[in-house]
Amino acid sequence: MQTLDGTDLRLLLELAKDPRRTVVALAQKLGLSRNTVQARMSALESRNVFLSFERRINPVSLGYPLLAFISIHVQQHKLGALTDSLAQIPEVVEAFGLTGAADLLVRVVCTDAEDLFRINGKIQACDGVERTDTSLAMGELIPFRLNPLLQRGPRHTG
Amino acid sequence: MQTLDGTDLRLLLELAKDPRRTVVALAQKLGLSRNTVQARMSALESRNVFLSFERRINPVSLGYPLLAFISIHVQQHKLGALTDSLAQIPEVVEAFGLTGAADLLVRVVCTDAEDLFRINGKIQACDGVERTDTSLAMGELIPFRLNPLLQRGPRHTG
DNA sequence: GCAAAATAGTGCATTTTGCTCAATTTCGCG
DNA sequence: CGCGAAATTGAGCAAAATGCACTATTTTGC
After folding, report:
1. pLDDT of residue B158
2. Which positions on strand C lie below 7 Å from a protein C-beta?
3. How many CB atoms lie within 10 A of CB B16?
4. Could you check: is the Cβ of residue A24 within 7 Å of any atom of nucleic acid strand C?
5. What's a GO cellular component annotated to this UniProt protein (chains A, B) (predicted)?
6. Is the pLDDT of residue B87 over 70?
7. d(CA A44, nearest CA chain B) in Å
8. Does the domain at residues A6-50 carry the CATH identifier 1.50.10.140?
9. What are the domain boundaries of chain B?
10. Does B138 touch chain A if contact means CB atoms closer than 8 Å?
């Protein structure tokens, strides 16, 4: 997966400003022809530059105002099965395998403290889980952003 | 911010399947009139159900294949200033204030291990930082998803 | 059961899309 | 420097989608 060039980045920046911009409007804004923009967009699509739309949905709107991160210590050989178990819990919205102190970091959304308690129990009940450490997110200090990296320009093209 | 009803959820589900679906196609798919879908979409927009488009951009495509989570212990009263400092580091893509062991959880993308080392140093150099714990994400076991929660339906309407 | 809100249906001008084709420019590389 | 491939441009055109408005009809909350 090769890196993107400056034009791609400018496209992405404009999209970040307004995701509903039309191809025509983008072409005009960037001083490119419509064909070029359309080709670029298709290329971005097929290169999997765009992640799932679900990422743009606000969990708060869905009725899950609470966010928590749960670190999990796992019995190593059971990691595969555990991933499947975690995938069965709807409130688990994201999970990573980690180096360092903990083995797994799980992102969880929930309706309230009681709900979090319940979900945490569910996780602890999964086969392979040795210990969990739950941290409630008190504030979104820096909401997800890629803008600074987009503006910095392409990384050493090649 | 009131919760969404079943129709909104079905809309979001369809959008998750294919974000580029037109209003017309959505209306047809859901058995609604175009007017209704258009009104719903506007309502979702103005209710801030949609988060920034940046969330859909793949950092790997941008040339940042590595992802890390850094826990930070902070001198409490310096949290505000620290947030500003962290915001100045482009590779910091997300940050949360936490309860529990650590005070801050920071999500960082980088080009390679050396890059991560450099960024970690930058964070440690910030005023207010007492200690950091870095974990490299070895695998995206469960990529971000909201689908299970969407399919579950609306949370106790009211 | 009433009033307000949501939905459906219709219409129309304008814009956007998807597609193709040929000419031109830019770029990689020997 | 110069060749050939790739990218970009401009044009055209039919089909589709959008934005807007207006009026019934249905659904909903109280």
Report:
1. 43
2. 6-10, 15-21
3. 18
4. yes
5. cytosol
6. yes
7. 9
8. no
9. 6-50, 66-136
10. yes
pLDDT in tens, B93-140: 999 999 988 899 999 999 999 999 999 999 999 999 999 999 999 999
Q: What is the pLDDT of residue B1?
A: 52
The pLDDT of residue A156: 64
- pLDDT given at position A3: 78
**Residue A42, token pair as written in the block:** 């298709």
Q: Which nucleotide is nearest to B34 (CA to C1')?
A: C8
Per-residue pLDDT, averaged over B77-87, amounts to 96
Residues 19-38 of B with CB under 8 A from A: 19
pTM, two decimals, is 0.94
Alpha-carbon Rg of chain B, whole angstroms?
A: 20
- Alpha-carbon gap, residue B67 to B60, rounded angstroms: 9
Element (H, E) at B111: none
Distance B115 CA to D6 C1' (A): 34
The DSSP line for A89-133 is: -TTEEEEEEESSS-SEEEEEEESSHHHHHHHHHHHHTSTTEEEEE
- Which stretches of chain A drop beneath a pLDDT of 70? 1-2, 156-158
Measured from the CB, is B38 under 7 Å from any atom of strand D? yes
Query: Residue B80's closest chain A neighbor by CA?
Result: A141
User: Which residue of chain A is at minimal alpha-carbon distance from B8?
Assistant: A62
Classify domain A66-136 by CATH architecture.
2-Layer Sandwich (3.30)
